[in-house]
Amino acid sequence: MKERHYWQRSRIVVYALLITVVTVSAVTSIELVPRAHADSPYTLNSVPAFAQEGNAISLVLTVKFNPITTSTTFEFRFNVKDPAGRTFQSHLINYTTAPGQDQFSVIVAYPGVLFPGSNSLAGQYAASVDQVAPSAMLNVASSSFVLAITDNPTYERTQTVNLQGSGYNPSESVAVTIRTQTTSSLVFSQTILATSGGIVTGSWKIPVNGTIDNYIVTLTGTSTVKSAPDVQNFSVRAAIMSVAGITTLKSIYQRTETMRFSFQPIYPDGSIPITGVALLTLARPIGGNVTLTATYDGNAQTFNASYTTFANNQTGIWTVSLEAHAYGDAYGNIGPGARVTNNPQLVPASLTITVTTNTNIGVGQQLRFNATIAYPDGTTLQAGAVGAYLLYSGTPSVNGSVPVVFDTGLGVWVGTYTARSSDPGGLWSLVIKASDSPSPANSGTATRAIIIQNNASASFPLYYFGIIATIIAALLIIAFLLFKRRRVTSTRLKIDLDAVHSEAGRIESSEFFKSVRDQITKEKDE
Q1: Which end of the chain is less crowded, N or C, counting CB atoms within 10 A of the terminal residue's CB?
Q2: Strand pairing of 360-362 and 443-453?
Q3: Would you state the pLDDT for residue 525?
Q4: Based on the domain organization, do 155 and 203 belong to the same domain?
Q5: Co-location of 390 and 470 in the same domain
Q6: Which is nearest to 314 in space by CA: 290, 339, 291, 294?
Q7: What pLDDT, on a 0 to 100 scale, did the predictor assign at position 29?
Q8: Which residues make Cβ contacts (< 8 Å) with residue 483, sequence separation at least 6?
């Protein structure tokens, strides 16, 4: 019984020790090994994911974990499997965390000093990472990258396909061909010598009308045989042309003027198309669209469209737009990639009024005028509110209207006015105003200077001229009669002209004559 009891006590002690050891171990492992985040604790990225043969790829491993209070050293081994099935391993890559750190990244170049390998085969490479310490785990993260012969997997027409192969012997002749996949049509063929480093480079510019298809590029050396041949597919699609914007001749147009728009599409290689057609949409301010067809102008190297506005068009902001893919050339290339717009403004028209008239009339004479009233496009206003006014700004001021009518035969507006004796003499203004019926109305104004000479004020000096002439004539008659009375013989009879002149001078210097002369001078100055 004693032995049995002792054995039971011994088992309890052993269990207690085991529980203690397990607990201590668990605590120790929690402190020494960071606990990784549940969401993607390990991620591996290849930078870049697509490159040409002969280029190095950066493999970036990122590790995230809950922060710990002690430093921990991690060890990783990177692996890359090439298109021929060969696997290359890197040296051990170490990283030691700092206390409180919760993530880090490790970068290694493939191929490189720490990661020997091959990058001379075209195809997909598989990359992975094994963790060696603090705990061993296989394939904690993986990714892939492509080493290709071309610099892109997809191209648009007019772009250039740049070719590069590696792993050839120095100065080796390498045949380069490009064929369409569907029909095997040969579109490019060239023999290129490898550089001293075994690199082969070339290029092929895709025509603007190149076949839209998948293409196969092949590099074949004369002495080098690769475990995976240098063969690669790439695709060619229609070009998407860019359009920087729509240009308008003016930002503000008047009614009846012609709105003019232009744009310049550009191929991916920067060249300018010279064929094709585009549809522009012109939207009115309060609804309704007009479709305009843009055609190519070889001189300006732009595609142009126009719209002639009407006298009753809506005023405000109009919007002209070229929708995405609304332009196409003769080969099926399209553009732009996104909608482009411009916003010209339409305002009421300023009517141009040209007045023809006589500008100097007297009392009882007629002022005759005609007016040509035209819209900005040159068409004539034939119906509307047209008024003519004669304005005098002196004292008293006068503002009188003159009736005008439209002469359909001459295509002008005509009017007449007869000067009245009550009209002040001086400078007048003939003002013609015109407007039509749309809302807001198109309108215009013109002014001409008119002189009206009122002779009523000139009758006073003429009256005195008559009096003076009568006086002088009477004096001459009297002088003649006086000399006749003397009955002088015919040989001595003559009129003493000097005496007559003296008498006339006396009359001229008299106060009465002076007042008449001053009055005439005053009237003339006025």
Answers
A1: N
A2: parallel
A3: 52
A4: yes
A5: no
A6: 290
A7: 36
A8: 493, 495, 496
